[in-house]
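Sequence in, structure out. Go.
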Amino acid sequence: MTTTPRTNALGADLERIDGHAKVTGTAPYAWEHPVPAPTYLHPVQATIARGRVLDVDARAATALAGVVTVLTPFNAPALERGYDAELEVLQSDEVAFRGQLIGAVVAETPETARQAADLVRVSYERRPHDVAFAADRDDLYAPGVVNGGHPTDTRQGDPDAAFAAAERAVEATYTTARNHNNPLEPHTTVARWHDDGSLTLHDSTQGVHTTRDTVARMFGLDRERVRVLAPYVGGGFGSKGTPHAHFVLTALAALRTRGRPVKFAVTRQQMFSFVGYRTPTIQRVRLGADADGHLMSLSDDVVETTSRLKEFAEQTAVPARTMYAAPNRRTTHRLAALDVPVPSWMRAPGECPGMVAPEIAMDELAEACGLDPVELRLRNEPDTDPDSGLPYSTRNFVPCLTEGARRFGWDRRPPLPRSTVRDGWWIGTGVAGSLYPVLQRPTSSARVRLRPDRRYEVAIGAVDLGTGAWTALTQIAADALDVDVDDVALRIGDSDLPTATVAGGSSGTTNWGSAIVEAARRFRETYGPDPEPGDGSTATMRPNPDVERFSMHAFGAQFAEVRVDVDTGEVRVPRLFGVFAVGRVVNPRTARSQLVGGMTMGLSMALHERSVLDERFGFVVNHDLAEYHLSACADVDSVEATWIDERDPAVNPMGTKGIGEIGIVGTAAAIANAAYHATGVRVRELPVTADLLLTDF
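Output:
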């Protein structure tokens, strides 16, 4: 008997399930959810970098027709204290950074709220502020741990002695800029209190349960009395993975509007003030090798910023601990606590800035050893994880390098820098490696229920940021239930659904998919091949014992072609190419989109993105998309991403590793290395701009 192949097979190139709703404008984002008689919030922000609010004169604002209320630190409802200083909005007259939320106007229209907020007059007690970031500050400190619970410092062997004895060595300082997340949909919250004292939030968040738990704690509510909805989110890149003060302010304002909902959409300029950013870093890297290029010593000493208000310790040196073999190694993190907003998560936190410095240094070491940069990396492939000593569940970095080099045409690369000029452009190529950990938290749950229409309702409180979760999770559910994709009705984006981890760390498919597989397995075991409508089961993702036995990472190799104008130093990137080992790919269409998007974001980091902090006033001056430049289609002619066929049963039931972040990790270093190959000018700071390349022309 001939059977028709099911369309649910993992790996099928299915169209996005949410695609039609998005292109027709029927997918509701946070601001677009209809609520009765809405009001609109516009914040009042601090115009000093440090000090205290003495008085708020809101008389002109309240006299404006359409103003509903004005909140200040002197009249705002009370919140729970001692949980998170960043979220304790309007609970104190203290000002910790410029742009801090120190008030809010609620009005009948957004325009009235904005006008009234401009009429509020604030008196301050000014205090000296300090926002100067430098590696030689005398008040740098070591945090207890860095993000992810990683040790702050690690040391193996004697890296200093091994470096001193090395036959080939590189020692240099590399810097990455302060970067700001700018998803298409800004942070947005709609808050509505109900007569029974419960609260509903429509929020642009990466985790409905995280947001629910946070707001419940801040307002002293039971979690069951808070509902957060986020069926569609217009990007986040990490910035929406951690709650910020704006949604607390919105809920606080809604307490004062007597049941009328309050809407607050953060403006593009406000996105640079209080919703997080990637810390700038200063990394001192030392690589020592023998004459054949085998690493004997590796050190990465990182300095980065945090806020005096709340600590955020980016795990920047962590990827250097596992990428290459070296018997003697050291990594350290030191923080400069400044009067600035709290840094936060941004795509591939830690790994993205943390691979820039070592991968540029590896390019420099290859030149010192007289080796091709690909060959140097191949010679330093570890047998086991240098950090943990565990074997890798799979480590296919070498195939990524070799296949990428073959397809990119690396063999045609001139061995010497500044050796190719064509039509007034210096031309060069570069390579860099990338990695990203497989993150697993066995706390997600899923529910499977057969509906009267014989479709399987699969429910989990996951969030789709535009990454393709609607489609990938439907495919996983269909595969686990052995039904067609059309027979699955997925429900996500609601805190009333079974608990799901935050959409971050490239872990959504791993955690949510594992929970769905477990719920489907239990459903089939309980009800057999002929379930009845109404039958259902709920299950939680099983802990994976293999996480104690293996080091689990995705790997990749990125290649870039760079052209630099011989007269102006203008930089162009006609080609980006990446090959990745990311476990099983659930949907090639959404996977390729994520990898290409990550690589394009890496291009933006390499050439354009830099938040300029005016130290006199303590704020970012290029706080809009007119002056904070992002890569556009015109900045790269070709971006290609592919992957090798990788089977890794140890990581999870699907064999997935995560795709959302690894694409950005090595891209900036590959571009910087290509710029050197084109011009012979070594730039050790990002972004790579024309003025830096012209210094030695």
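Check: The first strand starts at residue 39 and ends at 45. The mean pLDDT is 96.
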